[in-house]
Amino acid sequence: MAKKDFLPASYVLLAVWFTRFLNKLVHDLERFGISNNDFVPLRDKLSAYIASHEQAVKVNAGTTDRLDRKEKAAIAKKYARWFINTFLRFNPAVTDDDRSDLGLTIPDPEPSPAPPIDTEPIGQVDVSVHLRHTLKVKDSHHSGRAKPEHARGFEVWRKVGEAPEKDDDFIYVGTSGTDRMKLEYPLDMVGTMVSYRFRWVNTRNLPGPWSEIVSAVIA
User: Fold this and answer.
1) Which listed CATH number (3.40.50.2000, 3.40.190.10, 2.40.128.110, 2.60.40.10) goes with 121-217?
2) Closest Cα to residue 161, out of 171, 174, 153?
3) What is the DSSP string of 148-216?
4) Which residue has the higher pLDDT, 157 or 4?
5) By C-alpha distance, which of 42, 140, 35 is closest to 82?
6) Is 111 exposed, middle or buried (0-12, 13-18, 19+ CB in 10 A)?
7) For the segment 44-88, what is each residue's pLDDT rounded down to a tens digit?
8) Within 13 Å of residue 128, how many CA atoms lie on the same side as its CB?
9) Residue 90 to residue 44: CA distance in whole angstroms
10) CA-CA distance, 61 to 63, in Å (whole number)?
11) Whole-angstrom Cα distance, residue 118 to residue 142?
12) Which end of the chain is more exposed for a tag (fewer CB within 10 A), N or C?
């Protein structure tokens, strides 16, 4: 899931955010070890946006004013991100309380571990290339998604020859980080049946439920 942007999308809220940010920052420059020469370009760009926004919301504002606000918003946002990443984000003098006051994201010191995956892959075998099985999977519960959230990839297990009768008949082949895996076979195996089953593994290498078994002959 994408992280929420700490900079507001709304022009009104962005002006409020910049005003609050500057008012907080200007009182702590020395404590944060930020020089006035580094602060002034930030102040000027953010202040230019605030002034442009105030002009754009006036009753007599026109298209030119709104376009100017849009342009200055892009400039101010880009510079604010650079300034924050350069002077604040990894600054040991900036506390979590400071980040809260500045409107910044507070980092999670212990990110939540990836949860187990509860969906199974749907697999198919493409035999269109001589002596090759191209295994393709997609997530059973999310149409159009190659793999579910938190999945590192999918495991491939196979049984060569007669149809499998128990779990132990399958042998682990490998794990693919994409939505497919290609397996090449020797000429003397043409006509041999191969059965496959798959399962997702998350970023902690914990497996999910098994797929249905799919089988194909080596062409």
Assistant:
1) 2.60.40.10
2) 171
3) -TTEEEEEEEEEESSPP-SGGG-EEEEEESSSEEEEE--GGGTT-EEEEEEEEEETT--B-PPPPPEEE
4) 157
5) 42
6) exposed
7) 999 999 999 999 999 999 999 999 999 999 999 999 999 999 999
8) 4
9) 23
10) 7
11) 12
12) N
Within 8 A by CB and 6+ apart from 96, the residues are 106
CA dihedral sign of residues 119, 139, 122, 144: positive
**Residue type present at position 3:** K
Exposure string for 9-40, b = 16+ CB within 10 A, e = fewer: eebeebbebbeebbeebeebeeeeebeeeebe
Task: Pull the structure tokens for residue 98.
Answer: 């400071």
H or E element in which residue 22 lies: helix 11-26
Task: Indicate the domain borders of the chain.
Answer: 11-102, 121-217
**Residue whose pair of structure tokens reads 């010191």 in the numeric block:** 109
Task: Please tell me the pTM assigned to this model.
Answer: 0.51
